[in-house]
Amino acid sequence: MSDVKNLEERFQERIDDEQKIEPRDWMPDKYRQNLIRQISQHAHSEVVGMLPEGNWISRAPSLRRKAILLAKIQDEAGHGLYLYSAAETLGVGRDQLIDQLLTGKAKYSSIFNYPSLSWADIGAIGWLVDGAAIMNQVMLTRTSYGPYARAMVRICKEESFHQRQGYEIMSVLASGTEEQKAMAQDALDRWWWPSLMMFGPNDADSAHSAESMKWKIKRESNDELRQRFVDRTVQQAETIGLTVPDPDLKWNEERGHYDFGPIDWDEFWNVVKGNGPCNRDRMKARREAHENGRWVREAAAAHAAKKAARKTAA
Amino acid sequence: MSNDNEKDWPLWEVFIQSKRGLDHKHVGSLHAADAGMAIENARDVYTRRGEGNSIWVVKAEHVHASNPDDAESFYDPADDKVYRHPTFYTMPEGAKYI
C-alpha cells in the first residue's frame, strides 16, 4: 500500500515538475484509463469527422475546392491514426478501440452528428468546428503524456490549413450574391451553437475535469477555452459581414471578453445520448466501411503470409 | 466484429529522416501487413507535407527498451565522471585553438 502511495507521489511530483510521462513509466490506473478514453474518443472524432465532409467531395464547386477538401479529409484520417498510435502506447490495441466505436461503447465528438446541408457547411465546419478543435488541441500540445503531446504537435501544424480554408469559403460566399451570403449566414446560424458545445459542459458540471487538471492531461478548463474561441471568432465573423446568432452577445469591457447567451445543454445531452440528427447514419456508415474493407485487410494479411512463406522456403 | 483480421497486421514503429544528413527520428507507429505496406502507409501518414526523404520501419516487437524505473542506478556510472567533459580541464593562459 505504502509502495503504491510512494509511486503515486513520485508520479505527481513529476507532473508538477512539468516532466512528461512516457509509455513505460509507472502511472496510476485511472490516469491510464482516463487517457485511453480521451485519446480514443479524440481519434474516433477525427475518423467520424470525415463523414460530413465526404458528403460534399463530389459536389465541390470547383476543382480547386475539391482537391483541397480531399486533402483535408485525408489529413483527418491521418490525425485519427496519430491518435490511435498514441493510445496504443498505453497498452490497448487499435482493433479494440475501433470495436468500441463500432459497438457504440465509445463516444466521438457530438458535432459530427449534425448534417452538412449546403456547400457553406463545409466552410463553417473548417472555420468553426476545426477552429474550436484547435483551441483544445493547442492546449493538448502541453498535455502531460508524451506520445499524446507529440501527436498534438503534429496535428496542430496541419490543422491551421483546415481552419483557413473554411474561413476562405465563408468569406468568398459572404462577398458573393445575396443567395450566397444567405447560404453562409445560414451555415453560421446552424453551426455556431453546436461549435460552442464542443468544449463540453460548463466547468461546474464536467465529470472528468478536476482529475484531468491535476494530472495536467487538460491544462485549461472547458469554459476558458470556449471563451477564447468566442472572443476570436466574433471578430472574424464581423470581418466578413456575417452575424453570430446570439442576441445576448456583447463585449464586456470590464472582463475584457464577450458575454454570450446560455447554451442549450438539453440539446447537447440529447445528441450525446444518440438522438442527434445523424447519429444513426454516422454509425451505419462506419460499420459498413469497416465491413466493406474486411476483404482488403484479409487479402493483405494473406499476401504478406504467402510472401513470408516463400522467403523461408527459398 | 471482434474476430478481425486486423489483429494479424503487426504494429510498426516509424522513423523519418527529414533531410539528407540528419538522423532518422521516431515519429509514431502504424499497422501494416508487411514492411512494404508499412513504408507506403508511413509515407501517406507521416510525410504528406514533405516532412521526410527517407523512412525506416521496424516491427514494434523488435524494439527493446531500457526500464525507466532503473534509470537512477542504470545511468549512475556516468554521474561521477565529470572528467569526460572538456570543461573539466584547466587550460594554460594564452593557449589558442584548444
Describe the structure.
The complex is a heterodimer of chains A (314) and B (98). Chain A contains 13 helices and two strands, in the order H-H-H-H-H-H-H-H-H-H-E-E-H-H-H. By secondary structure, chain A is mostly helical. Chain A is globular. Chain B has a domain at 5-63: Phenylacetic acid degradation B (Ubiquitin-like (UB roll), Roll), CATH 3.10.20.520. Chain B has helices at residues 35-46, 71-74, 76-79; strands at residues 11-17, 24-31, 54-59. Residues 1-5 of chain B have low confidence and may be disordered. The A-B interface holds A 22, 24-26, 71, 74-75, 78, 81-82, 85-86, 88-89, 93-95, 98-99, 102-103, 147, 150-151, 154, 158, 290, 294, 297-298, 300-301, 303-304, 307-308 and B 1-2, 4-9, 11, 27-34, 37, 44-46, 48-49, 65, 67-69.
Largest interface: A-B, 36 and 27 residues
Structural class of chain A: mainly alpha
**Class of the domain at 5-63 in chain B, according to the CATH hierarchy?**
Alpha Beta
Unreliable spans of chain B = 1-5
Helicity level of chain A, as a percent range? 55-70%
Which second-level CATH architecture of the domain at 5-63 in chain B applies? Answer: Roll
In percent, how helical is the residue content of chain B? 10-25%
What is the CATH T-level topology of the domain at 5-63 in chain B?
Ubiquitin-like (UB roll)
Please write the string of helix (H) and strand (E) elements of chain B.
EEHEHH
Structural class of chain B: alpha+beta
**Mean of the pLDDT scores of chain B?**
90
Question: What form of chain B results from the Cα inertia axes?
Answer: elongated
- Rg of chain B, please? 22 Å
What portion of residues of chain A belong to β-strands? under 5%
Beta fraction of chain B: 15-25%
Major beta sheet summary of chain B: 3 strands, antiparallel
Mean pLDDT of chain A: 95
> How many beta-strand segments of chain A?
2
Strand order of the largest sheet of chain A: 1-2
